[in-house]
Amino acid sequence: MDRIKKKVGTINYKKGQWFLLGCFCYIISHEITHLIFMKLFSREKINISIKFPTISVGSGAKFNKMQFTIIALAPVVILGCILVLLIIFTKRNYTFLWTILLILNFAGSGGDYMQFFKIREYPSNTYFQDNSDETVIYQEQ
Ligand SMILES: [Zn+2]
User: Fold this and answer.
1) Is 138 part of a structural domain of the chain?
2) β-pair partners for 51
3) Is pLDDT larger for residue 83 or for residue 53?
4) Which of 10, 25, 80, 135 has CA 20 to 30 A from 87's CA?
5) For residue 101, how far is its CA from the centre of ligand 1 (angstroms)?
6) Residue 93 sits in which domain range?
7) pLDDT for the residue numbered 69
8) What distance in angstroms lies between residue 122's CA and the mean position of ligand 1's atoms?
9) What contacts 24+ positions apart, CB below 8 Å, involve 24-31?
10) Residue 4 falls within a domain, yes or no?
11) Is 45 a domain residue?
């Protein structure tokens, strides 16, 4: 056994914790992006509901079709662009982390796409109110 002593490398598992932290930061940034656009379109108070493991933001405001579409798709589009830029412009060691988060960005936004496809079915005089549990739909008389 004396022959087995030449160390050729190590495997470090501590980096796994960065992935958890990265995912956590991603989820927070995602919800904050929804929130920023809700605030941009309305002064109504925002409610944040945390039901482990999901967190979602809602508002008492009624948004028109265009506004509601932007609110739903803003995180996947904006964070997606930021992550692609990070993959291109940061060091190679980070590429894997950003790629995982980019996958999370597209996979984790399932509810947002669903909302987008539902919104499209309604005419332009429709208003949407998302209380973070469900979306209530109104129509102009
Ligand atoms: Zn979302």
Assistant:
1) no
2) 54
3) 83
4) 10
5) 14
6) 63-126
7) 96
8) 20
9) 26/79, 26/101, 26/104, 26/105, 26/108, 27/55, 27/108, 28/55, 29/75, 29/79, 30/75, 30/79, 30/105, 30/108, 30/109, 31/55, 31/56, 31/57, 31/75
10) no
11) no
**Residue range 54-110, pLDDT digits in tens:** 788 888 899 999 999 999 999 999 999 999 999 999 998 889 889 999 999 999 898
Quote the CA–CA distance of 58 and 136 in Å, as a whole number.
11
**In-domain check, residue 42:** no
Measured in Å, residue 88 CA sits from the centre of ligand 1 at: 25
* CA–CA gap between residue 15 and residue 83 (Å, rounded): 19
**Number of domains within the chain:** 1
Percent of the chain clearing pLDDT 70 (strictly above) = 99
How far does residue 9's CA lie from ligand 1's centre (Å)?
Answer: 41
Provide the pLDDT for residue 1. 59
